[in-house]
Amino acid sequence: METKPLKFVLINPTSPLWRVESNQKPVNHNVFRFSMLPSLYVTAAMPPHVSCKIVDEDVEPIDFDTDADIIGVSFMTYNAPRAYEIGDIFRAKGKTVIFGGYHPTFMPEEAIQHADSICIGEAEYNVPRIIKDFQYGGLKKFYISELVDLAELPQLDRKLLKDNAYVTANAMQATRGCIHHCAFCSVAAFNRYKIRTRPVNQVIDELKTLGKHVLFMDDNIILNKEYAKELFEAMIPLNKRWYSQCGIGMAADDQLLELAARSGCRGLFIGFESLSEQTLEAYHKHTNRKKDYKEIVRKIHHAGVSICSGFLFGSDQDGPDVFENTLDFLMEVNMDALQSTRLTPFPGTPLFEEYDKDNRIIDKDWSHYDFFHVVHQPKLMDIKTLDRGTAWVQKQFYSYPNISRRVARAFSYLSAETIFKAMLPLNLGWRFKLSNYGAFELGKNFQPAH
């Protein structure tokens, strides 16, 4: 039987704040638009007779009159209401709608109310099964994937992305997953608390096809340290400049840090999460406990690597003094960039289960699960204090005088290339994003203790 050609459109919904309507230019700063790597892997897993298009609402509007045979929608929790709206519209037009991503994986019974089928877990193994069943009239409601062997990852077609719409199209993965059980993290749960590595020779081969500046979209690129060392050593001759995320363990192994720097590492996102030992214990963030954060930052800076730190506010151990204490630390160590967020208990995490059981989740409007709303009841401060205190830290950290001061100090440990290509754009990007979310205005309403 001849296989009939199919058309597949994969949609990535976004917030109304950033959504592109017809004939409108993108409004979200491209430093926060990554290269859609998960979507590229979905399309790469399609059988040859399926033609694909990726639609990112950050970049272009949805064509609800498309002639596509199948509509895919990939989304995280905060985009779930928009995804459900999109699914309902297309299904009313007689289209087959398939959901995938973090939120449908953790809330499949909810998601199936707005779709014909749910891809649970990773897409690469599920996609061929879904397409085959669709063509033969036997589409199932749920497809649960085993973990993908990274040696079998398909080759990506980056031409599916809009030119210059993203901070870089040169994004890739060397590893997936995490073995840690941090209470707030859905990434590890999605990957079933396992770490997988891709053969180093495959990573190097892909790197050779990419430009000078590369983004590794790994959850923790150094989690398997021996693998990381082998990878970094193999990367040195390529003369790349790369950025990724990892744990604070990068500073605990001198050889690892040296190899990372020599291989071209110029920036890392690191989840510090909190200065409080009690909070780290409550989060089960054991890798960060009893560590000298100041010395960690100093060592990584000394290697010529910039740091974007992640801090969460709103744990059961956080009082109103947490904001000023954290800001003081960030300014003292000259943290290069900051992602500071309100603690958010995402579905699929132990934190969600705990707070839901205790009736401490006060808001289940999924669109508010964007780190810019308080959705749970803190123990040691009221909701307004958490909301305004987080905004105050953001306002202070990303004020123009503090950005200028930070950049000036960074010249003592970062190259001019790293400052002007990474650190400064990230600071200005965060300032743009936070001001659009109203953080600077909200931060005016918080009075620190001193």
Summarize the structure.
The chain is of the alpha/beta class and 450 residues long. Helix content is 36%, strand content 16%. The chain starts with 5 loop residues before the first strand and ends in a 7-residue tail after the last helix.
What would you say this structure looks like, in words?
Helix content is 36%, strand content 16%. The chain has 17 helices and 14 strands. Helix 8 packs parallel to helix 9 and helix 12 runs parallel beside helix 14. The protein is globular and about 65 Å long. The mean pLDDT is 94.
Descriptive tags:
450 residues, alpha/beta, six-stranded parallel sheet, 14 strands, 36% helix
Layout: helices, strands, pairs:
Elements: E1 6-12, H1 37-44, E2 50-56, E3 70-74, H2 80-92, E4 96-100, H3 102-106, H4 108-111, E5 117-120, H5 126-135, E6 142-144, E7 171-172, E8 175-177, H6 186-190, E9 195-197, H7 200-207, E10 213-216, H8 225-235, E11 241-246, H9 254-262, E12 265-273, H10 277-282, H11 293-302, E13 306-313, H12 322-332, E14 337-342, H13 350-357, H14 383-397, H15 400-410, H16 416-436, H17 439-443
Parallel strand pairs: 1-2, 1-3, 3-4, 4-5, 5-6, 7-10, 10-11, 11-12, 12-13, 13-14
Antiparallel strand pairs: 8-9
Helix pairs in contact: 7-8, 8-9, 12-14
